[in-house]
Write a structure and sequence with these properties.
heterodimer, A: about 110 residues, mainly beta, Immunoglobulin-like, 5-stranded antiparallel sheet, about 55% strand, B: mainly beta, 7-stranded mixed sheet, 4-stranded antiparallel sheet, about 50% strand
Chain lengths: ~110, ~120
């Protein structure tokens, strides 16, 4: 039950905004967002728990619509450092202790000067 | 947060051989995971490494091919056995401090090429 991300790729000019979407066919416990730069490990950005909350820091924020089983990542006034591949990871409630993430295919974001 | 190191960082191996990848964390963690990532693709979970017991494998991954050990709360190994070119990939160790709604920290990865 891999989540579906859209768009697959986006190219921006510095200062422009972008939205990356993540949707699941299953009810979600939480949604996680990670960014991975080429040749590096994924880096945690934020986690959203069910409840429709919105989180953010500086110019990167995210929302989680539990009913629609969707999450969106918002990047405003993009900077060159935002370039990379963004992955959403979805956590589905499980009966056994502990749970695990299933990652989407990723969205490649390129910010040009 | 947690600082994770992996050894080796990369290796080139011959078909039919095995490679053991080590994952060391600078603090005790609750859960440890092993992922595989083909270049330009998503992260695929291989298994959850359980301390003191057998690992929990995802569909499509078996213990004979990917034996995992986790002798304590800070260390784990993944062995890729009887390798074939299809095993060429980046293998990542990941840890978390909690069992639910956790943030994961990833190691730098091991780039494996099988010839």
């Amino acid at each position: 039950q891999q989540p579906v991300q859209s768009p697959q790729a986006v190219i921006l000019r510095e200062g422009e905004d972008a939205v990356i979407n993540c949707s699941s066919s299953k009810a979600l416990y939480s949604v996680h967002w990670y960014r991975q730069k080429h040749g590096e490990a994924p880096v945690f950005l934020m986690i959203l728990l069910k409840g429709g909350e919105q989180k953010g820091h500086e110019k990167i924020s995210a929302s989680f619509n539990e009913k629609k089983q969707q999450s969106s990542l918002y990047l405003t006034a993009s900077q060159l450092s935002y370039s990379g591949t963004y992955f959403c990871g979805t956590e589905i409630p499980q009966e056994t202790s502990g749970s695990r993430l299933t990652f989407g295919e990723g969205t490649q974001l390129t910010v040009n000067p | 947060s947690a600082v994770i190191s992996q050894k080796p960082s990369r290796d080139i191996c011959q078909r039919g051989t095995s490679l053991t990848i080590q994952c060391q964390v600078d603090s005790q963690v609750t859960m440890m995971f092993w992922y595989r990532q083909q270049p330009g693709q998503s992260l695929t979970l291989i298994a959850t490494a359980n301390q003191g017991s057998e690992a929990t494998y995802e569909s499509g991954f078996v213990i004979d091919k990917f034996p995992i050990s986790r002798p304590n709360l800070t260390f784990s190994t993944l062995t890729v056995s009887n390798m074939s070119p299809e095993d060429s990939s980046i293998y990542l160790c990941s840890v978390t401090l909690w069992t639910h709604a956790y943030e994961q920290y990833f190691g730098p990865g091991t780039r494996l090429t099988v010839t």
